[in-house]
UniProtKB/TrEMBL annotation, chain A:
<feature type="transmembrane region" description="Helical">
    <location>
        <begin position="109"/>
        <end position="126"/>
    </location>
</feature>
<dbReference type="GO" id="GO:0051301">
    <property type="term" value="P:cell division"/>
</dbReference>
<feature type="transmembrane region" description="Helical">
    <location>
        <begin position="12"/>
        <end position="30"/>
    </location>
</feature>
<dbReference type="GO" id="GO:0008360">
    <property type="term" value="P:regulation of cell shape"/>
</dbReference>
<keyword id="KW-1133">Transmembrane helix</keyword>
<keyword id="KW-0472">Membrane</keyword>
<feature type="transmembrane region" description="Helical">
    <location>
        <begin position="50"/>
        <end position="70"/>
    </location>
</feature>
<feature type="transmembrane region" description="Helical">
    <location>
        <begin position="342"/>
        <end position="360"/>
    </location>
</feature>
<dbReference type="GO" id="GO:0005886">
    <property type="term" value="C:plasma membrane"/>
</dbReference>
UniProtKB/TrEMBL annotation, chain B:
<dbReference type="InterPro" id="IPR050515">
    <property type="entry name" value="Beta-lactam/transpept"/>
</dbReference>
<feature type="domain" description="Penicillin-binding protein transpeptidase">
    <location>
        <begin position="159"/>
        <end position="469"/>
    </location>
</feature>
<keyword id="KW-0472">Membrane</keyword>
<dbReference type="GO" id="GO:0071972">
    <property type="term" value="F:peptidoglycan L,D-transpeptidase activity"/>
</dbReference>
<dbReference type="InterPro" id="IPR054120">
    <property type="entry name" value="PBPA_dimer"/>
</dbReference>
<dbReference type="InterPro" id="IPR001460">
    <property type="entry name" value="PCN-bd_Tpept"/>
</dbReference>
<dbReference type="GO" id="GO:0005886">
    <property type="term" value="C:plasma membrane"/>
</dbReference>
<protein>
    <submittedName>
        <fullName>Peptidoglycan glycosyltransferase</fullName>
    </submittedName>
</protein>
<dbReference type="InterPro" id="IPR036138">
    <property type="entry name" value="PBP_dimer_sf"/>
</dbReference>
Length: 439, 476
């Protein structure tokens, strides 16, 4: 069985490789004169022609994914065969656009990708059995809170958010990893208490309400993380935490009441934040009408809209647009660059890929053997889906812009590694579903 | 397990929000894409333009109005000018790196640069063979010599002239004065000077955006309404004592006209007749007629057009109605709209869709797009149009419009003298108006003329119209 799964996975990876190759060739045909000498910044002064650099990194990426698939076959790992090729496709696309937009970042991204792939191998080797994770839920709270507090004291501010830790050569964004801890905590807590939360132990005004013991820790955890994030000014991450929280509570209890209370709280909190915090107010004002701020704080979103509108249905073609007019195009706004050059169709194709990821993730959750595994898979998948939705809705001005990365595509080391950890845990659950280590 | 059920529902929710993303993205790209792509602040267009030879703009006979001359590495746009002023400045417009673009240069940018969807293959081939891409040419309906005649007739006075072919809708001349030098837009100080000059407003296209009270020229519209609604028969007469009293307000006429029927009222421009008949027509009838003649619409010409307006609803009382019936009160209309209304009278009640661009051509002259003339509106019936025409012929033969008469040609015309006196400017001269067409039995050209604050329509505007009509008829 594992042989068949892995064979399917590898055959999908070949398509992704072909896709990456076509991307690289297109870029080369567009600008062959770019072939100046390129000096590696991480490689100790090694110099090589630019296109060699591109080809080496591309082959390295696909080889990495392929080797993992081979390794899984040998190690008898029986995970879902679609998730990794989807991820590989998104990563390949991100790499192509980094080559095109900021080659020097492609190198760093590749280094992070190797770390991410290593994390994937370690997790799928050492943590195949996930259930023991359910026992340490308060450790996640402590670790998560610590990780979130650290940048407030030792952190660096980038792009207006104070959420980076500087570790010499590496910069880490702890909130990316705390997301996963949040899901693990919620999954174990909800798995344990969900029956009480769903039916309630006390009654107020005829509505059954669970006791403070049951929902207290939830509210505290959620409140602490939001407060800290507001002080870090990282609105996007706060929004993702909050939505993931609501999604998991709903999945565990099926009570719309909690979701409604959550939305009311969110609305009140949002209104308060709008009046208290300048950076929140300006984000909302820009969203409502960016045009008066064309030369100032609305510049970025308007450049993003120009890029989206200039692409048309088929796009300008890879390398033929001018997405570099958008500030921070390689991180938060990479989707606009993709739509400008690959068109509406390219943009929709990416959305469909993410939808496939969500579909496979929830299928794993539906087949999971116990509540903890099901809730973990649901939470991780919802996290991925909501983050994608929030950033894309931001760059197309459907929602106010909140700076988060587009999973697997945007430049951003912590985010990439954290997403591979997320992928690894989903795959472990699906390994369990497909029979696990026995037989 | 009921949790599975919840997870499925969550899945549907996530699916829905992603579908929402796809829908909104499609809306953004398909509905707003064009506007965003060609937004003046979007630097993509300018960057692409730098490597493209912009197409040439010709008049209907092949006179070059705008062309790009290649000077070394850069193209320079050169416009036809006369003594450092361009009579075509408002219609053709300009392209400037600093100030964006205007006029047909702006609205036909895609064609002039060859960037329409149909050009994609050609552009790809250009890229492969490393050729400098060249945009399409425009052939306008304007006649350069007629335009020059109108420009010289205005002789620097503030005003506008519009000439149309009533049978096709082709705009033959469109002059707004004062104009500016389209070649000098980028020169130091010019732009701010043009924008500062509020009195002359040289950047304003008076022919399509000017908001003038039309005065008695509007009687051709009111007259059509009266006849169409049959609130009066053409032969019905009234007694004109030289004034009319409406709700206690005495509205003076230019003189006492005595016994007046429809034809005589048009010929002698009797305000009393139109005030009384306008009151019978009512606001409903007047607004309906106004809309029937397309005065409230902006035809898609490729340049900005200000739709005409009547008094706002709150101000629509009886004395406002009486004054609006002869083109005073709060009525404001552009010269283009008056020319279109007049073309309905010339063309048996039908207004052809006006257009400025006759053809879009490839550099070798092969047309990619030809504008077909089509009916824009049916303003009134042929019978009504014939009666109004009879009144306009009478106005030229023995009435107020006689300075527009051309020997050997039947001319139909109507003057307007629109009062501009206000409490602050008690000595302000009236706007001089003329609308008309010739030959009356087989109209070849419709003309509308306005000269701001210059005197009576018959003394100032009619001679200009006469000159333009004669040039259009005899200098073919």
């Amino acid at each position: 069985m594992t042989a068949n799964l892995r064979k399917e996975e590898r055959s999908l990876l070949y398509y992704i490789s072909a896709y990456l190759a076509v991307g690289v060739i297109t870029l080369y045909l567009g600008e062959p004169e770019l072939n100046r000498v390129y000096q590696l910044s991480l490689g100790g002064g090694i110099k090589l022609p630019f296109w060699w650099f591109v080809i080496i990194l591309s082959i390295g990426t696909m080889l990495g994914f392929w080797l993992i698939s081979v390794y899984w076959r040998l190690a008898g790992f029986r995970c879902d065969p679609f998730l990794m090729p989807i991820t590989a496709g998104l990563t390949a696309l991100g790499l192509i656009f980094l080559f095109r937009l900021r080659p020097q970042y492609a190198e760093r991204q590749f280094a992070w990708l190797l770390i991410g792939l290593l994390a994937l191998v370690l997790i799928t080797t050492l943590m195949r059995e996930l259930d023991w994770l359910a026992d340490y839920k308060y450790i996640y709270v402590a670790a998560g809170a610590l990780l979130l507090v650290l940048p407030i004291f030792f952190g660096q501010e980038q792009y207006g958010a104070r959420s980076w830790l500087n570790l010499g050569i590496l910069q880490i964004q702890p909130s990316e990893f705390v997301k996963i801890l949040l899901v693990l905590f919620l999954a174990s807590f909800l798995a344990e208490n969900r029956r009480v939360l769903a039916t309630g132990s006390d009654q107020i005004l005829g509505i059954s309400i669970p006791g403070i013991r049951e929902y207290g820790p939830l509210v505290v955890m959620w409140g602490i993380s939001l407060l800290i994030l507001v002080f870090q000014k990282d609105l996007g991450t706060a929004l993702i935490y909050f939505c993931t929280f609501l999604a998991m509570v709903y999945a565990a209890t099926a009570r719309m009441l909690y979701v409604l209370i959550g939305l009311v709280l969110f609305f009140l909190g949002g209104t308060a934040a709008y009046h208290i915090f300048d950076h929140v107010r300006s984000r909302v004002d820009i969203w409502l009408n960016p045009w008066p701020f064309l030369e100032g704080k609305g510049y970025q979103i308007i450049q993003s809209l120009f890029a989206l509108g200039s692409g048309g249905i088929f796009g300008s073609g890879l390398g033929q647009g001018m997405p570099n007019l958008i500030p921070a195009v390689h991180t938060d706004f990479i989707f606009s660059a993709i739509v400008e050059e690959l068109g509406l169709l390219g943009g929709c194709a990416i959305l469909v890929l993410y939808m496939c990821f969500i579909f496979r993730g929830l299928m794993i959750a539906l087949a999971a053997r116990n509540d903890f595994a099901a809730l973990t898979a649901t939470g991780l998948t919802a996290l991925m889906g909501l983050q994608t939705f929030i950033i894309i809705a931001g760059v197309i001005k459907l929602l106010p812009m909140t700076g988060v990365t587009l999973p697997f595509i945007s430049y951003g080391g912590s985010s990439l590694v954290a997403n591979f950890v997320l992928l690894g845990m989903l795959l472990n659950i699906s390994h369990e579903v497909n029979g696990g280590n026995e037989t | 397990m009921e949790m599975k059920h919840n997870i499925k529902k969550l899945g549907y929710f996530l699916l829905c929000i992603f579908v929402l993303l796809i829908l909104y993205l499609s809306y953004l790209v398909l509905q707003q894409g064009e506007e965003l792509a060609t937004h003046p602040q979007n630097r993509r267009m300018a960057a692409r333009e730098a490597g493209i030879i912009r197409g040439t703009i010709f008049d209907r006979k092949g006179v070059v109005l705008a062309e790009t001359k290649w000077l070394g590495e850069r193209g320079k746009r050169v416009y036809l000018t006369e003594n450092h002023v361009s009579p075509f400045a408002h219609v053709v417009g300009y392209v400037s790196e600093k100030y964006g673009s205007a006029g047909l240069e702006a609205s036909f940018s895609k064609e002039l640069l060859g960037l329409t969807d149909a050009d994609a293959l050609e552009n790809l081939l250009d890229k492969i063979f490393n050729r400098t891409p060249r945009g399409h040419d425009l052939v306008l309906t304007l006649d350069a010599s007629l335009q020059r005649t109108a420009w010289q007739a205005l002789n620097g006075r503030r005003g506008a002239v519009v000439a149309l072919d009533p049978k096709t809708g082709a705009v033959l001349a469109m002059v707004s004065s004062p104009a500016f030098d389209s070649n000098a837009i980028d020169q130091a100080g010019v732009w701010s000077r043009l924008n500062r000059d509020e009195e002359n407003a040289p950047l304003l296209n008076r022919s399509t955006q000017g908001a003038y009270p039309p005065g008695s020229a509007f009687k051709i519209v009111t007259g059509s309404g009266i006849l169409a609604r049959q609130t009066a028969r053409p032969a019905d007469t009234i007694q004109c004592p030289g004034y009319v009293v409406v709700d206690g307000n005495r509205i003076a006429d230019n003189r006492a006209h005595g016994k007046v029927d429809f034809i005589k009222a048009l010929a002698l421009s009797c305000n009393t007749y139109f005030a009384r008949e306008g009151l019978k027509l009512g606001w409903d009838g007047l607004v309906h007629t106004f809309n029937q003649f397309g005065l409230n619409q902006s035809p898609a010409l490729g340049i900005p057009v200000r739709p005409g307006t009547l008094a706002v609803k709150e101000r629509r009382n009886r004395s406002q109605l009486a004054e609006s019936s002869f083109g005073q009160g709060d009525t404001l209309i552009s010269p283009l709209h008056m020319a279109l209304a007049c073309s309905a009278i010339a063309n048996n009640g039908v207004i052809m869709k006006p257009f400025l661009v006759k053809e879009v051509c490839k550099p070798d002259g092969k047309a990619v797009r030809v504008t077909e003339s089509s009916i824009w509106l049916t303003a009134t019936s042929p019978e009504v149009a014939a009666l109004v025409k009879e009144g306009m012929i009478a106005a030229v033969n023995w009435g107020t419009a006689s300075p527009a008469a051309i020997r050997g040609v039947d001319v139909a015309g109507k003057t307007g003298t629109a009062e501009t006196k206000t409490d602050r400017q008690p000595n302000s001269l009236p706007h001089a108006w003329f609308v008309g067409f010739a030959p009356a039995n087989d109209p070849k050209v419709v003309v509308a003329v306005v000269v701001e604050k210059s005197g009576s329509g018959s003394r100032v505007a009619a001679p200009i119209a006469r000159e333009v009509m004669a040039a259009a008829l005899f200098r073919r």
